Amino acid sequence: MIDPARLSAYIASRICHDLVSPVSSVTNALDLLNDPGDMEMKAQAQDLLHDGAEKAGARIQFLRYAFGSIGLNAGAADIHEARKITENFVASHRPSIEFDIQTDHLSFSHVRMMMNLVMMGIDCLPRGGVIHVRIRNEQVGLTITLTCKGNRARLRPDIANGIKGIEPEDGWRPETIQPVFSQIICDGLGGELTASESEETVIIMAAGIRAEG
Questions:
Q1: Is residue 102 within a helix (H) or strand (E), and if so which, with residue range?
Q2: Backbone angles phi, psi at 164, to 5 degrees
Q3: Edge-to-edge strand order for the sheet containing 96-102?
Q4: What is the three-class DSSP state of 12?
Q5: What are the pLDDT digits (tens) for 151-160?
């Protein structure tokens, strides 16, 4: 599907892209604090510094799980911790998130799958909205379903094609590689990844995932 060296390079670029905005906020805030100015400006800089550092921390923690080695750990993940990490990550973007998890076991690989679906869900809601995450143990295996609703919710063509392994005409790029990575994870778990859309709603589903992860 894609050369491993290119895949790793594009994933690294995607991670850097997600961190540019909050890290830049921290840098700008430090510059303002070092400049002479009135107390109101200093207070604004402190708020900017706090917000940027909080968002950067949330994104780093999430991306270490979604793309890094944490998602490869053996055994059961802490569901409450996984929810909190995901909630903090989504809070640094426009949408909000809701969870409906009815299973006693989520492996680290399951959580990594869920997190990558959430990243696609965020990309489908550029104006904000709600991402509803539903996880169930079914006869075919574990099923993770994201229902993304919002003003101008849209299944982007690069996401729809990426999960099918269809390469864009101009080739893969960091901004189009994440759905491909999600498909690779889903394949490794024995599942099937699909996406569909209707008016102001996008549904992304990973079904038939191995229960043990």
A1: strand 96-102
A2: -95, 0
A3: 96-102, 130-138, 141-149, 201-209, 192-198
A4: helix
A5: 999 999 999 9
